[in-house]
Amino acid sequence: MRTKFLAGAALLACASVSQAQGTSAWGYFETDGAPLQAGLVSPDGGQLILKCDEPGDGSVFAVIVAPQRLRPSTTRPQVRSLWLQFDEGNREEVRWRYYEQSVMALNTRRDRNLEPFLRQMVEADALNVRFDPADGQPFAINFTVTGAREAVDRVFESCEDDNVLD
Question: What is the mean pLDDT of residues 114-126?
Fold first, then answer.
């Protein structure tokens, strides 16, 4: 899990460069032999990352790294509520895996949160994420997700995974 967040820090630098160069805030990070990662950095200090650890079917996942702690550290994730609002739409309650400082949406037989999240995100320009920490006050972070379709397509291709949006 630690390597996921270290890669996210490198992605942070890439996202900053991408923002300065083009219309999309999405940044891309790739190391030798590893699949591509795509991500955003919010003004609130959060990160939204699309990636896989190893190529293959069902390998792509989304992780949102929060700027503050979400729950006590344990070896197993805890499934808790999270609220997502795309653009000016309704705020929707979903249940994602909570880790100490991140939440994760997967595309597995038992956890099908990734596809609906991606379907809404590629049609939106803005995303508001409201967290309900286990031992703290609820808080929200905001992302500008314009250009998400390209990021999703590139990550699925690099991860050799069947794109859930096709």
Answer: 97
